[in-house]
From TrEMBL:
<dbReference type="InterPro" id="IPR052178">
    <property type="entry name" value="Sec_Metab_Biosynth_SDR"/>
</dbReference>
<comment type="similarity">
    <text>Belongs to the short-chain dehydrogenases/reductases (SDR) family.</text>
</comment>
<keyword id="KW-0521">NADP</keyword>
<dbReference type="InterPro" id="IPR036291">
    <property type="entry name" value="NAD(P)-bd_dom_sf"/>
</dbReference>
<dbReference type="InterPro" id="IPR002347">
    <property type="entry name" value="SDR_fam"/>
</dbReference>
<protein>
    <submittedName>
        <fullName>NAD(P)-dependent dehydrogenase (Short-subunit alcohol dehydrogenase family)</fullName>
    </submittedName>
</protein>
<dbReference type="Pfam" id="PF13561">
    <property type="entry name" value="adh_short_C2"/>
</dbReference>
<keyword id="KW-0560">Oxidoreductase</keyword>
<dbReference type="GO" id="GO:0016491">
    <property type="term" value="F:oxidoreductase activity"/>
</dbReference>
């Protein structure tokens, strides 16, 4: 709702507001979770992509949101989670 509210408030000034919602990503901060075989197996089984995300998986979405291709996109949250939220 934050992106939608800010979109409504700032849109008339030409400001786009969008959010990026990453799923489970293999980063230095959660190396212990990645190393935990049981948890990693749960992630792989729960995510249609069958793997942890990597930081490079965010690049395409970020480039889209920063480019003129998204000039008419505002108030949205883009999930980059390998499909995990689609199988709740």
């Amino acid at each position: 709702m934050l992106t939608k509210g800010m979109c409504a408030d700032l849109g008339p000034a030409g400001v786009q507001v969008n959010g990026l919602a990453p799923g489970y990503f293999d980063t230095e901060l959660n190396a212990a979770l990645v190393a935990d075989e049981d948890f990693s197996a749960w992630i792989r089984g729960r995510t249609p992509a069958g793997r942890w995300g990597t930081v490079t998986d965010l690049v395409g979405t970020l480039l889209f949101l920063c480019s003129p291709a998204s000039d008419f996109v505002s108030g949205q949250v883009v999930f980059v989670d390998g499909g995990m939220t689609s199988v709740l």
